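Severity: low
Component: inverse-folding endpoint
Summary: output formatting inconsistent between runs
Steps to reproduce: submit the following structure tokens with default settings.
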């Protein structure tokens, strides 16, 4: 019987070898958003590489993790609602600074 090995977990999602690059790229974007935003957003979680498959117990080949990680474009799904609010807040703060300078 063939097992589609679980090679790691990203946040609360268990990833197979095919899913790993996609979820890791989104996770890296989520960490960057978490570190750079000025809002109080929930922590994105952790990324873990597993040494053994959770389903069958087979040893995971480390070459699985050497796949190139594509650059994630856009906002991570877990922060979509916060990103809209963050953009609005950036615009508000910039406009208020400009108005204060014009008044002086």
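Observed output (run 2 of 3):
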């Amino acid at each position: 019987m063939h097992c589609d090995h679980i090679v790691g977990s990203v946040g609360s999602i268990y990833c197979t070898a095919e899913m790993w690059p996609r979820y890791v790229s989104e996770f890296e974007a989520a960490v960057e958003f978490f570190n750079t935003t000025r809002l109080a957003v929930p922590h994105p979680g952790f990324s873990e590489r597993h040494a053994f498959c959770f389903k069958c117990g087979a040893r995971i080949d480390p070459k699985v993790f050497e796949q190139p990680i594509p650059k994630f474009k856009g906002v991570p799904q877990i922060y979509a609602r916060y990103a809209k609010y963050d953009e609005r807040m950036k615009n508000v703060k910039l406009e208020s600074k400009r108005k204060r300078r014009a008044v002086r």
